[in-house]
Amino acid sequence: MIFRSSGRLPVSSGRLLGALLVCLAVLLTGCGTERQGGTAERAEPGDAVSTPAWARGMDTVPAARLPAEARQTLRLIDRGGPFPYAKDGTVFGNFEGELPREARGYYREYTVRTPGERDRGARRLVTGREDETYYTDDHYASFRAVLR
């Protein structure tokens, strides 16, 4: 048996092809929040569902999932202090270049107490003038955007 094509698809086949292309586009762009490094952050009840523009392209963490000491530091930041460490609230220079480039003085850093550490430890929260908040637990080697 020989089939000859007229070069045109029936209307129903065209609609099916269009629907398949839409599905493929959705799958290729992703359905969830993608974290840097390819690991998806799973949403939990009460988690923020959308990532703000300033946090796109970097790892994120919902504020509720931060260590208890970091959540306490966030409360102190929101209240304006008092802070337990003299360096809390000082300018963060972003010398490592891990955060978006901004003018000097844009970022401020705050210590997150680490149980068992005799000094300030490695954990910090860094805030930006536009209410951005970032968390590091490895002394500025990497940051996660805090979703509040």
Describe the structure.
With 148 residues, this protein is α+β, with helices and mostly antiparallel strands. The chain has a domain at 61-97 and 104-146: Roll (Nuclear Transport Factor 2, Chain: A), CATH 3.10.450. Helices cover 21% and strands 16% of the residues. The chain has two helices and six strands. Strands 1-6-5-4-3-2 form a six-stranded mixed sheet, covered by helices on one side. It starts with 10 loop residues before the first helix and ends with a strand. Mean pLDDT is 79; it is low at 23-49. One of its GO terms (molecular function) is RNA binding. It comes from Streptomyces silvensis. Keywords: Hydrolase, Nuclease. This is Ribonuclease N.
